[in-house]
C-alpha cells in the first residue's frame, strides 16, 4: 500500500464515521487572529495548542522558516486577506528554535536537486535569468532577527493597516515554551 492509499482509506472511514463533526467551525477565526509560523512537523499541533488556540480560533499560514520572502507574494497576501476579508484583527509571527531554515546549506540543497535529476543547465538558466538561488533557497542565521524582519515587512507594507497589532514570538519545538520578541500592542498606530 502507498501513502496515498492509506490517506484515502483513512478518509473514507473519517467521513463515514462523521469524525469531521468535531472539527466544524466557521471560516472566520473566532479569536480574530492570523498566525504565520513554520511548516516544521513538530509545530503541526504544537504551534496552536501551546498558545491555547482550538480549531477555528486562528488562521494559520505556514511556510519554510515562517519567512515572508516577497512583499507581494502568497504569504503576505494570506496575512492581508486574513485581516481584510476574514475578520482577523491581530497578527502573530512565530518562528521557532532549531529551525531547519536557520543556516540551511544551499549548496547541499542544490546538490540534492542535481542528484534527483535537475540539470546544471536548468540551474544556470535560472541564475542567468536573474534568480539568486542562494537567496531563494537560503534561510537565516538568527530566528529572532527573522521574526523582527518579517514584522517590519508587514508593518511597513503599503497595504497594511498599522492599527493592527503584530506580535512576534519564538517557540521551542520541544517544550512549547514561547519567547516574546515583540508585543504588537506597543507598536500600533492609531488611525
Automatic annotation (TrEMBL):
EC number: 4.2.1.1
Binding site for Zn(2+): 38, 40, 96, 99
A Pfam family assignment: Pro_CA
Cofactor stoichiometry and binding remark: Binds 1 zinc ion per subunit.
Residue ranges of the TM segments: none
Catalytic reaction list: hydrogencarbonate + H(+) = CO2 + H2O
GO molecular function annotation: carbonate dehydratase activity; zinc ion binding
Cofactor requirements of the protein: Zn(2+)
UniProt entry keywords in alphabetical sequence: Metal-binding, Zinc
The UniProt record lists the keyword Zinc: yes
Family, as annotated: Belongs to the beta-class carbonic anhydrase family.
Annotated protein name in UniProt: carbonic anhydrase
Organism, scientific name: Macrococcus hajekii
Amino acid at each position: 500500500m502507498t501513502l496515498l492509499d492509506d490517506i484515502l482509506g483513512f478518509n473514507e472511514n473519517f467521513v463515514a464515521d462523521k469524525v469531521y463533526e468535531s472539527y466544524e467551525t466557521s471560516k472566520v477565526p473566532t479569536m480574530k487572529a492570523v498566525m504565520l509560523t513554520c511548516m516544521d512537523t513538530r509545530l503541526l499541533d504544537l504551534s496552536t495548542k501551546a498558545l491555547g488556540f482550538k480549531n477555528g480560533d486562528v488562521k494559520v499560514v505556514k511556510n519554510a522558516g515562517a519567512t515572508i520572502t516577497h512583499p507581494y507574494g502568497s504569504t503576505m497576501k494570506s496575512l492581508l486577506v486574513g485581516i481584510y476579508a476574514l475578520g482577523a484583527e491581530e497578527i502573530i509571527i512565530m518562528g521557532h528554535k532549531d529551525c531547519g531554515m536557520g543556516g540551511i546549506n544551499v549548496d547541499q540543497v542544490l546538490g540534492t536537486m542535481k542528484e534527483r535529476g535537475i540539470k546544471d543547465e536548468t540551474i544556470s538558466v535560472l541564475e542567468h535569468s536573474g534568480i539568486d538561488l542562494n537567496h531563494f533557497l537560503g534561510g537565516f542565521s538568527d530566528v529572532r532577527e527573522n521574526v523582527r524582519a518579517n514584522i517590519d515587512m508587514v508593518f511597513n507594507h503599503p497595504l497594511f493597516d498599522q492599527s493592527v497589532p503584530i506580535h512576534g514570538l519564538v517557540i521551542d519545538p520541544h517544550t512549547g515554551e514561547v519567547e516574546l520578541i515583540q508585543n504588537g500592542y506597543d507598536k500600533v498606530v492609531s488611525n
